[in-house]
Amino acid sequence: MLKPFWKEEELSERDRDESIETILEKMEKESGSTEEQSGSDDVKVGETIRRKREEAGLTIQELAEKTGFSSAILTQIENRMISPQLGAIVEIANALDLSVSAFFTDEEGKDFSIVRKGDRKIVSRVAMKDGASEDYTYESLGAGKKGRKMEPFIVHLKPLDDIKARLSIHKGEEFIYVLAGRVEVILDKYTDILLQGDSIYYNSSLPHHVHCADDEDAVILAVIYQS
After folding, report:
1. Quick one: 156 exposed, middle or buried, by C-beta within 10 A (0-12, 13-18, 19+)?
2. Which of 40, 49, 140, 146 could form a disulfide with 109 if both were Cys (CB 3.0 to 4.6 A apart)?
3. pTM attached to this predicted model
4. Which fold has domain 14-225?
């Protein structure tokens, strides 16, 4: 069983240095592997974005002007050639005057939601065309709760090929808790490294980006509040 991260105790150097492979193996045993979960429940966000854009009567160019993303990037997202980062999804949702939840479920939902470990809605490489490799794989933990303002995710981060990533800016707040690995957080001109058990809470109006701090994978719990 995974060691509870929420116990109020100092992590030893040995705990902090535990290999990412070991931690991920433990997580897979607890929740089931991504491959086992990745089937008909995979969320094809790109296709949903295209449908919502067309329903709003917007062209790709018009959505590009509203979000600040290029038409080429949006076309790649809609055609599942790349998987959008969570910040990008929030920006696109705001531009379409939608909640982020609109991209993860078409169900009306209930006043509460219980997501079993084997029933998580997954956005990942296997939901993309041509098996393209991505830096993000994330699992929705809030699907089924109607009218929700918070979106909780388990996010699996891959090392970036290009560290000069586009900083995201949008309304709301974000909370990040590191489950495994080392994560670099950029907040405008401030940069810091978060280790396993560390967390950060910030206003999303600050230009920000979250990614692996080195060439090892990382896993985080991310909660996004869309104001």
Report:
1. buried
2. 146
3. 0.69
4. Jelly Rolls (2.60.120)
